[in-house]
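Researcher: Here's my situation. A collaborator sent me these components and asked whether they could plausibly form a single complex. I don't have experimental data yet, so a predicted model of the whole assembly would be a useful starting point for our discussion.
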Amino acid sequence: MDLRDRVALVTGAARGVGAVIAARLAEAGARVILTDVREEEGERTAADLGPSARFLRLDVTDEAQWNAVASQVIEADGHIDVLVNNAAVLHMGAIASTTPETFRRVLDVNTTGPFLGTRTVVPHMIAGGGGAIVNVGSVDGLFGNNGLSAYVTSKFGLRGLTKAAALELGRDGIRVNYVASGGGNPEMYAPWMERIVTFLDETIAYQNDRAIPGGAPPEAIADAVLFLTSDAAAHITGVELPVDNGATAGHFIPGFNRL
Ligand SMILES: NC(=O)c1ccc[n+]([C@@H]2O[C@H](COP(=O)([O-])OP(=O)(O)OC[C@H]3O[C@@H](n4cnc5c(N)ncnc54)[C@H](O)[C@@H]3O)[C@@H](O)[C@H]2O)c1
């Protein structure tokens, strides 16, 4: 999967899965623009990737910042071929304790952010003859989960955006796909960790109820993103690819394997 001569923009790339995606795309030959609101971490992560990567600050909820970043990239690199909408925030909490402000904030980052990104880069992709957009979603965008209403809604919405955009942009040579991740950076749920450890056995049981026990590692998500951005996926658009250790295959009942 060769991305030489491609310019790729990755959101939320200062750390976690986004940083690993940026590294994979750079290894495949792309020039990579890492973006995030975490400036120091982002600068460090980009520096570690070498001369083919650089960092630009971008809050994905801010249309003016999207336009400024796109203009800078076009001026420096001439084109934008790949957009990976990876930035997201998590909120854990029952509906009753989730404020409307929090709900809106989660949708703003996780769903409106990718919409703004798509809207910003598409004219540049069309000018360059096409492109590929990958939206990093979650298995929580394929099935519901209690205590996660804002996040689940945002990731279902992102899946809808993926399909609508794929249909709208296919004739412009732009493919749009969704990776339904079944794992990621544990730092994302750090604010809730103190309470999660009080029912750790339930959390472990949830992750072991899969064909392959445990969460999918960031490298596996990054490999799927690389595939979907590459020409190997030239005829794949509008799909959701679960990278989830088989979480969406069904439920694993240990005793049934001993019958
Ligand atoms: N962590 C998990 O277990 C898990 C599971 C399934 C899917 N995912 C998805 O994987 C993707 C990557 O998450 P991660 O696990 O690396 O978590 P993470 O918290 O390490 O990464 C998210 C990044 O997004 C950035 N970000 C947040 N708000 C932003 C904004 N307004 N503008 C720009 N950047 C912003 C953060 O600074 C952070 O660097 C996300 O889309 C997430 O929803 C994660």
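Model: Some features of this prediction you could bring to your collaborator: Residues 11-12, 14-18, 36-38, 58-61, 86-89, 109, 136, 138, 181, 183-185, 187-188 surround nicotinamide-adenine-dinucleotide (CB under 6 Å). The first strand starts at residue 7 and ends at 10.
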